[in-house]
Amino acid sequence: MSVALPGAPRAAERAMPAPRGFRHLLRRFVRNRLAACGLAVFVLIVLLAALAPWVAPFSPIKTDFTAYLQAPSARHLMGTDELGRDILSRLVFGARASLEAGVISVGLAIAAGLPLGLAAGYYGGRLGDVLMRLTDAMLAFPPLILALAVAAVLGPGLGKAMIAIAVVLAPVFMRLTRAEVLQQREREYVEAVRAIGAWDSRIIWRHLLPNSLAPIVVQGSLNIAGAIITEATLSFLGLGTQPPTPSWGSMLNAAQQYLSQAPWLSFWPGIAIAVTVFALNVAGDGLREIWDPRTR
Fold first, then answer.
1. What secondary structure does DSSP assign to the chain, as a single string?
2. Gap between the Cα atoms of 132 and 127, Å rounded
3. What is the rounded CA–CA span in Å between residue 183 and residue 186?
């Protein structure tokens, strides 16, 4: 029979690995100029999307057939589309759909995959085997094909596209979380907390989860970029954002009929997708670098 000493809980807490301070991580992140620039660009895009009603010079859905397929000019800086709508205004409002799809779908995937990954990693056994076999089955499909299949079943719409993307990404976070928990549960601080009689729920949520979050945050930032591309693909195929609501993917879909006549229709949304994805990727690489113990 073991007897818990009065100072045992505090000693167990001290045995846990000390997290890096936020200021220290921020300084290391800023030293990576490319990552800092990527984060700044992404924040700028988020601000433009949030302030779209005040930034956009025209309505994104109001048609003007007198301004049919106008080239970029002083009045319409990025030109107009086949219905006379201002491209700049639609681009700014379209950022909302892309950012919502990226952030919300990844959030849903983490909310679904994180608890299952924690359970599979901590308890293991038959539960872990069943969850991992389900994960392997889902990961066997190409992500875009699986997203298209789920979106086709659910039907068109931005909300349903988010669910389809979340279904594709959830197994990724489940497997990553399980791998991190498997590494952490054998550490001395977990053994110390378990020895003082802490419940499993406290060990999982108070100790294992905080020490497993770093790679999950990095993976999440990288998957937001992938989710934006997937949403653009679904919208391009008519399964995402529906007209007249603007989105970068649907703008590319409409532009394919005018590639030779009005190339600016496809140029600007393509550039917007490329810049946003590149900014997120370099920012995610910066996060990975500051949390990678090999670079400390």
1. -----TTHHHHHHHHSPPPPPHHHHHHHHHHSHHHHHHHHHHHHHHHHHHTHHHH-SS-SS---GGGTTPPS-SSSTT-B-TTS-BHHHHHHHHHHHHHHHHHHHHHHHHHHHHHHHHHHHHH-HHHHHHHHHHHHHHHTS-HHHHHHHHHHHH-SSHHHHHHHHHHHHHHHHHHHHHHHHHHHTTSHHHHHHHHTT--HHHIIIIIIHHHHHHHHHHHHHHHHHHHHHHHHHHHHTTSSSPTTS--HHHHHHHHGGGTTT-THHHHHHHHHHHHHHHHHHHHHHHHHHHH-GGG-
2. 9
3. 6
Q: What are the pLDDT digits (tens) for 24-34?
A: 667 777 788 88
Q: What is the pLDDT of residue 21?
A: 60
Query: What homologous superfamily does CATH list for 42-52+76-295?
Result: MetI-like (1.10.3720.10)
What's the length of the chain? 296
- Cα gap 235→249, rounded to integer Å: 5
Diameter over CA atoms, the chain:
87
Q: Which residues pair with 80 in a beta bridge?
A: 86
Q: Which regions in the chain score pLDDT beneath 70?
A: 1-22, 24-25, 292-296
Asked if 190 and 203 touch (Cβ cutoff 8 Å), the reply is: yes
Question: What are the structural domain ranges in the chain?
Answer: 42-52+76-295
Closest CA to 275 of 108, 99, 128: 99
The pLDDT of residue 296:
52
Alpha-carbon distance values, 112 to 108, 193, 246 (Å): 6, 27, 29
Whole-angstrom distance, CA of residue 277 vs CA of residue 33? 17
